[in-house]
Amino acid sequence: MISLDSLDELVGGSEIRAREHFRRALDLQKDRPQAGPYVSLATGIALKKQNRDEFEKLLTDALSIDPDKYPEVRVPNLAAQRRARFLLNQIDELFPK
C-alpha cells in the first residue's frame, strides 16, 4: 500500500496515506522487523520529494535490520537490503546538486 499511495495524487496517491501505511507496517512487524517498508517509503516519497536526508535515513534503517535474526523474513529482508545498498550507491545521481 505504501507504493500505491506514493503515486501522484492525479492517480489516487496520497503522501499522508503512504506515511500512515508505513507507520502501520512498522507497528505490525514489531516482533520481526522488515526492511521493505523503509525502502518503499524512501523510493516512493523521499525520492519523489527530493528529500535526501530522509531517503538516506530510511535506507540506513533498512540496512540496520539483521536478516539472520528473523529467519522467517530473511529472504525478503535480504532483497530489500540489496535494493537499499544499490540506491545508496546511486544517491548522488538520484539527488543532483
Report on the structure:
This protein is globular. It has helices spanning 2-5, 15-28, 36-46, 52-63, 74-89, 91-94. Helices cover 63% and strands 0% of the residues. The longest helix is centred in the last third of the chain and has 16 residues, at 74-89. Helix 2 (15-28) runs antiparallel to helix 3 (36-46), helix 3 runs antiparallel to helix 4 and helix 4 (52-63) runs antiparallel to helix 5 (74-89). It has six helices and no strands.
Summed up:
The chain is mainly α and 97 residues long.
Find the count of extended strands (DSSP E, 2+ residues): 0
Low-confidence regions: none
Largest sheet, in brief, is: none
How far apart are the first and last residues' alpha carbons, in Å? 31 Å
Cα radius of gyration in angstroms: 13 Å
Strand content: under 5%
Instruction: Provide a count of the helices.
Output: 6
Structural class: mainly alpha
Summarize the helix and strand pattern as letters.
HHHHHH
The chain-level mean pLDDT equals 91
Integer tally of domains: 1
- Principal-axes geometry comes out as globular
Task: Chart the SSEs and their pairings.
Elements (H helix, E strand, L loop, with lengths): L1 H4 L9 H14 L7 H11 L5 H12 L10 H16 L1 H4 L3
Helix pairs in contact: 2-3, 3-4, 4-5
Structural descriptors:
about 100 residues; mainly alpha; 6 helices; globular
